[in-house]
Design a protein that fits this description.
With about 350 residues, the protein is α/β, with parallel strands linked by helices. Helix content is about 35%, strand content about 15%. The chain has a single domain, classed as TIM Barrel, CATH 3.20.20.140. The strands form four sheets. Strands 1, 2, 5, 6, 7 and 11 form a six-stranded parallel sheet that branches. It has a three-stranded antiparallel sheet with strand order 3-4-10, with no helix packed on it. A three-stranded parallel sheet has the order 12-13-14. The structure holds zinc ion (ZN). The site of zinc ion (ZN) has 5 residues, from loops.
């Protein structure tokens, strides 16, 4: 793929709020070999200068504890795709330490930014930050292992700014069962939410914390639909009908998201975007825009948003970092999207769901 094909096309920047990134794991405030979020880097996908270049005005920042003791050989190639062995449960004490360290790292980074970044807990705060040209961070917990069954930790995290939570990552915990990564395969891979998981959903509804169906298996998804009183959201996912990976949502699931008034944050991860499921970043922006347009055809322009997975997945070359976001907007324009729909997808749809969910 030539440099020209991947160069940033920018005929009028559009403000973007993104539904998912993993930058918190890479902060220098969190780990010694991490990156300075305030300085422009060529590594990873997201920092403040590249966000500004790309029109990214804020996003959900995931706090996530990866495996304490990573295993080898979990990825297995199959005749027509791949399977990844289901990850083991985390030690809750390790998860609590990790999430606390990541949240503290984010807090120190915001403090060091000297007003250039704010941690937002309301839509008014996000919109004020946008007007003030300040970057807005909303705290998200990806996998709730740091919270005990008695849910004490939930209130503590809420008081520190948490407004979004995925009960599981792609592994089991006391709340439910994450979907293991595989292609091609149905997301119906195991049991649904546990009783503790159902209690967690109710507690989040009461506090006004958004619930994220990304990484849930299909039964967990339907349990969430049955219990939650808030719009159903998947912060970073794509369409199973286009790319039949377990992490993507079936047409029935997309219809349920729409019926609830929720949104799907379109995931840029090549393994979930590419119809062939290959982990190959050589993918044209037309292909990416075509996949996103399937979501819009199925659900309508009010129910699709963005959920890049920057700093957490392999990006398509034309969207290789946050500074390249205008390429997606331009690709969608070329696909026939009007400006009103583009603004909904880029910003307004997330705000509507936040307003309906947060209190
Ligand atoms: Zn994820």
């Amino acid at each position: 793929m030539s440099e020209e094909e991947c160069a940033v096309q920018d005929p009028g920047k559009i403000a973007i709020f993104d539904g998912h990134n993993d930058a918190a794991q890479h902060l220098v405030e969190y780990r010694e070999d991490g990156r300075d979020f305030l300085a422009r880097s060529e590594e990873g996908h997201l920092d403040l200068p590249r966000a500004r270049e790309g029109g990214l005005v804020g996003g959900l920042f995931a706090m996530y504890a990866k495996a304490e003791h990573p295993r080898q050989g979990d990825f297995v190639r199959t005749a027509d795709g791949y399977e990844v062995r289901l990850a083991e449960p985390l030690d809750p004490a390790y998860a609590r330490r990790t999430i606390d360290a990541q949240l503290s790292g984010l807090e120190r980074m915001v403090a060091r930014a000297d007003g250039a970044i704010r941690c937002a807990t309301t839509v008014d705060e996000i919109e004020a930050a946008r007007r003030d040209e300040v970057f807005a961070i909303v705290l998200h917990l990806e996998g709730a292992e740091a919270i005990d069954a008695d849910l004490d930790g939930l209130a503590q995290l809420y008081s520190r700014g948490l407004r979004s939570l995925g009960p599981v990552w792609s592994r089991p915990n006391i709340f439910g069962h994450g979907v293991p990564f595989a292609y091609p395969r149905s997301p119906d891979t195991g049991p649904g939410l546990t009783d503790a998981g159902k209690a967690l959903v109710k507690a989040c509804n009461q506090l006004g914390i958004m619930l994220d169906a990304a990484h849930l298996n299909e039964r967990g998804f339907w349990d969430l639909v049955a219990i939650s009183t808030a719009p159903i959201v998947a912060t970073h996912a794509c369409a199973h009908a286009v790319c039949p990976a377990t992490r993507n949502l079936t047409d029935r699931q997309l219809d349920a998201v729409k019926a609830s008034g929720g949104v799907v944050g379109f995931n840029f991860s090549v393994s979930e975007v590419r119809p062939d499921g290959h982990r190959d970043p050589e993918i044209l922006i037309e292909t990416v825009a075509g996949h996103l347009s399937y979501l819009v055809e199925r659900m309508g322009g009010d129910h699709v948003a963005l959920g890049s997975d920057f700093d957490g997945a392999l990006m398509p070359l034309p969207l290789r970092d946050a500074s390249h976001l205008p390429n997606l907007i331009q690709g969608l324009r070329a696909h026939g999207f009007d400006e009103v729909t583009l603004r909904k997808i880029a910003f307004d749809n997330w705000m509507r769901v936040f307003r309906q969910t947060w209190r």
